[in-house]
Every structure is written in C-alpha cells, then in structure tokens.
C-alpha cells in the first residue's frame, strides 16, 4: 500500500521529555564596514548518528537556527522534505526584504539591526553579495501617521516633502511617510544556501514525522535510525501536517500572494537605488522593492488572495493580481503602470491568525520546539529569530515571548 506524505506523517505518534541547558558563546562580531572577500566555503561535515539538535525544515528559519547552534558548538542535522532551497518553500523567492520599521511594532523592529548584521556578515564572506542595504519609506494614511511615526521614533514627512524627494512617486495631500535608512534587500534562496554552507551543513532529503521518542535513552529517534537530544520543527506552513491535532489551518495557514517584477526603460535609474527606496505602502497595502540586478521593481499586495495547500498548489500568477498591482502603480509609481512584467510568481506565506511568529515547545515535550509563522517578515529577520530560537534550545529557563507562545496561537492553555 502506498501512503501519501500527509497520511504517513499523521499516522505516527508523538512523545516527549526534559530540557538541556548550555552556555551561549559569542556570535558574530561587529560587521557592516568590513570589506567583502570572496572565500571558498569548506565542505559540509558528514552527519553524526547522534546529534544535539535535529532541525526539520531548511527554510530561512531552520537554516539560521542551525547556523547559530553550530556556532555555539552543537552537532546539528537538518532535514528537508523537498531538499535545500526547494521551489515549494516560502523562502524560495529571488529577493527578500528586511524592513527596519516593521510597521512600528517594537518587538520586531528591535530585531531588525541584529538581523541586518547577520546578513551583512554572511555577505562579507560570500562569493556574491547576499545583502544590499537600502532605505525604506513607509507610506501612511493621516489616521495612523502620528502613532506609527512615534512608535518608530521618526517624524512623518508630508506629501509636499515626499514629492520633492521622490519625483518618480505620486503622493496625495493628507498622505505621509516615514523614512528609515536601515533596510536590506536579501538574495532570497541563494542566501539560505549560503547560510547553510557557512555552517558547513548539508541538507538531508528526509521527511520527518511527528516526534518519536526512545524513552530508555531519552532521545528522539530519526527516520534513518539516528537520534537527537532536541528537535526543532521549523517547517513553515507544513506544521499543520505534522501536528494536525494541535495546529489547525484555522490557526496557522498557507496563504497565496502573487508578485510581479516590472521593468523600467533602458537606462532609467529612477527605480534603482539610491534614487528609489523600498516602499512599504501601508495606506494602500502594497510593497515595492527597487530594481536590483536588472530584475525589475518587485511589487506585491500585503493581502493574501487564497488559502492553499503548499504541496500541490500551482505557482503561477494570474491576470487579476496583475491588474491590482498595475492599479496601485498608477496611483503611486505611475510611469511603471504599463511597464512590462519581467518576472512573476505565485508563492505561499505562512500566517498565524495574529500575524505573529510561533516559537514554543510542543506540549509536555521540553526538548521539542516549533518555529513558524511571522508572515511577510520572517525571512528578513531570520538571523535574529534563529538566534533567539537557538537561545531557547540551549537555555531551558529562558521564557517564551508571550506573543509567540502556543496558547496565544491556539487560544487555550495546554498542559
Ligand atoms: C510573495 C511573498 C513575498 C514575501 N516577501 C518577504 C520579504 O520581502 N521579507 C520577508 O522577511 N519575508 C517575506 N515573505 C515571507 C517569507 O517568505 C517567509 O516568512 C519565510 O520564508 C518563511 O520561512 P520558513 O523557514 O518559516 O518556511 P519555509 O521557507 O517554507 O521552509 C519550511 C521548509 O520545511 C520543509 N518541510 C516541511 N515539512 C517537512 C517535514 N515533515 N520534514 C522535512 N521537511 C519539511 C519544507 O520543504 C520547507 O523547505 C514573503 C512571502 C511571500 C509569499
């Protein structure tokens, strides 16, 4: 009998145990001004049969947690059902963005500089650049301008000021924006592969079921017979497949977004840095990233347009989503409204019902962690999120951030 992946995983049971604590050691040193040097990465080490931590999912969050754990002397194996940098993962886009303002949300904004340093450090030793620093403009309606500007510790610029600074953009009276110079454009999939190479880890193509515990040895058993002291499920939207009784799609869902790259005319530098910043248009709910490496201006709507199954959905964009992007361009970047599409893609993101991350233990299993969610921001912040996740794995006493806790996702206290 053949079982599909979902049947196989949900047919296996989960068990659990205690926690371990290790001291953290220093991570990266201060960074950004370092000259970038090309360096050949050393080969990945062959996996051990028993490891401190097995990580399930080699997207941005799994890869960065692995990187931090390796830096702190842990033995790590990392698995992915579809392989490293696979086309179904949320982390597979070509370009990702790190927003330093984070809509004025202090919890995430406080992680942005740390994350940028992490990407910059990786970039410094990579053969090709991994991060390109950029400035960011957050467009705001009159009703939220004062509160978000105060939360972001910045002052809101009026439409008049914005028209003078950014002649390629339209701004209506009553609109505002705040500028922040601490953003970054990150080389998406390539950045994940580089993170893993820097940690000297090779991803194993293994589909991991729910935790199976060897009670005698107090270890978790891996599908190939190996064992691990800790498990981290960083499997994005697939968390609902692995733990269907605990996390339902109503709480954590895979949602579709469609993005388009619009090509400016030959030699037109108005849409490249430094003339054009990244634009997070909260007022209309769209983001545009400046043209990097000639790939065109990347535009996407903040609002997902469908709930999907990340295994089976067809990653093709459609005309309706394109029309919505063109309509926004007509209102904000009018010279691009009829520009050709250079590239387009449908992709999925993983969204908790609050929009927050999930970073918590599996109930009654102190050494089994779940890390997922953080829609629209998890990639850029991954170096800082991964660091926090590694802290938890190495320090059993560290308190979980209440907004990222399982009860805050499921709405109930689980013992
Ligand atoms: C259109 C669009 C634009 C976006 N733009 C940005 C942006 O500019 N900046 C930003 O920060 N974020 C952005 N995001 C969000 C970002 O893509 C995600 O938040 C991030 O990539 C999630 O990473 P992850 O590691 O949690 O999940 P994923 O990248 O989905 O990785 C999960 C991995 O787990 C593997 N897996 C699942 N189940 C198993 C199993 N049982 N065994 C083994 N492996 C398994 C999967 O194969 C997959 O590779 C965007 C999202 C979309 C859709």
Structure description:
This protein is of the alpha+beta class and 415 residues long. It has two domains: 7-21 and 45-90 and 189-248 and 354-410, 3-Layer(bba) Sandwich (FAD/NAD(P)-binding domain), CATH 3.50.50; 136-183 and 252-350, D-Amino Acid Oxidase, Chain A, domain 2, CATH 3.30.9.10. Helices cover 24% and strands 25% of the residues. It is built from ten helices and 17 strands. A hairpin with a 4-residue loop joins strand 7 and strand 8 (219-221). It starts with a helix and ends in a 5-residue tail after the last helix. Mean pLDDT is 89; it is low at 1-33. The site of flavin-adenine dinucleotide has 42 residues, from helix 2, strand 3, strand 10 and strand 15. Flavin-adenine dinucleotide is lined by residues 9, 56-62, 79-82, 86, 88-91, 93, 96-97, 207-208, 234-236, 238, 242, 257, 259, 300, 347-350, 372, 374-380.
Main sheet attributes: strand count, strand direction, barrel closure: 10 strands, mixed
Gross geometry: globular
Structural class: alpha+beta
Quaternary organisation of the protein chains: single chain
Strand content: 15-25%
* Straight-line N-to-C gap: 37 Å
Which architecture of the largest domain does the CATH hierarchy give at level 2?
3-Layer(bba) Sandwich
Which small compounds were modeled alongside the protein?
Answer: flavin-adenine dinucleotide
Layout of helices and strands, plus pairs?
Layout: H1 5-10, E1 50-56, H2 60-71, E2 76-79, E3 96-98, H3 106-124, E4 131-140, H4 142-151, E5 157-158, H5 159-165, E6 176-186, H6 188-198, E7 213-214, E8 219-221, E9 227-233, H7 239-242, E10 252-262, E11 278-281, E12 286-289, E13 297-301, E14 306-307, H8 319-332, E15 341-352, E16 357-362, E17 365-373, H9 382-394, H10 406-410
Parallel strand pairs: 1-2, 1-9, 4-11, 9-17
Antiparallel strand pairs: 3-6, 4-6, 5-6, 7-8, 8-9, 10-13, 10-14, 10-15, 11-12, 12-13, 16-17
The protein binds flavin-adenine dinucleotide.
Residues 9, 56-62, 79-82, 86, 88-91, 93, 96-97, 207-208, 234-236, 238, 242, 257, 259, 300, 347-350, 372, 374-380 line the site of flavin-adenine dinucleotide.
């Amino acid at each position: 009998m053949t079982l599909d992946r979902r049947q196989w995983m949900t047919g296996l049971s989960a068990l659990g145990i205690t926690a371990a604590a290790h001291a953290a050691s220093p991570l990266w040193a201060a960074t950004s001004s370092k000259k970038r040097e090309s360096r050949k990465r050393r080969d990945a080490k062959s996996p051990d049969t028993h490891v401190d931590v097995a990580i399930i999912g080699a997207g941005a969050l799994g890869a960065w947690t692995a990187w931090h754990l390796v830096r702190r002397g842990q033995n790590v194996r990392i698995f992915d059902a579809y392989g490293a940098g696979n086309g179904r993962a949320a982390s597979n886009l070509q370009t990702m963005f790190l927003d330093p303002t984070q809509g004025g949300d202090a919890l995430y904004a406080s992680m942005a500089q740390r994350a940028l340093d992490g990407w910059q450090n990786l970039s410094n030793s990579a053969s090709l650049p991994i991060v390109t620093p950029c400035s960011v403009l957050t467009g705001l309606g009159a009703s939220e301008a004062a509160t978000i500007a105060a939360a972001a510790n910045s002052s809101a610029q009026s439409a008049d000021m914005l028209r003078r600074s950014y002649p390629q953009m339209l701004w209506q009276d009553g609109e505002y924006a705040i500028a922040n110079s601490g953003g970054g454009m990150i080389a998406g999939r390539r950045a994940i592969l580089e993170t893993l190479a820097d940690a000297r880890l090779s991803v194993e193509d293994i589909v991991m079921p729910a935790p199976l515990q060897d009670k005698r040895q107090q270890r978790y058993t891996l599908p190939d017979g190996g064992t691990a002291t800790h498990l981290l499920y960083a499997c994005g939207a697939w968390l609902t497949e692995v733990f269907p009784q605990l996390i339902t799609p109503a709480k954590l869902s895979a949602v579709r977004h469609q993005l388009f790259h619009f090509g400016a005319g030959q030699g037109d530098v108005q849409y490249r840095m430094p003339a054009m910043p990244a634009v997070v248009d909260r007022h209309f709910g769209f983001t545009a990233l400046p043209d990097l490496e000639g790939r065109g201006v990347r535009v996407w709507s903040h609002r997902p347009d469908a709930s999907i199954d990340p295994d089976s959905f067809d990653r093709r964009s459609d005309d309706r989503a394109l029309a919505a992007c063109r309509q926004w361009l007509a209102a904000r970047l009018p010279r691009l409204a009829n520009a050709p599409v250079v590239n387009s893609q449908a992709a999925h993101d993983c969204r908790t019902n609050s929009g927050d991350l999930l970073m918590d233990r599996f109930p009654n299993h102190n050494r089994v962690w779940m890390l997922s969610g953080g829609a629209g921001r998890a990639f850029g912040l991954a170096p800082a999120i991964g660091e926090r996740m590694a802290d938890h794995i190495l320090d059993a006493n560290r308190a979980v951030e209440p907004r990222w806790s399982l009860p805050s996702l499921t709405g109930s206290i689980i013992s």
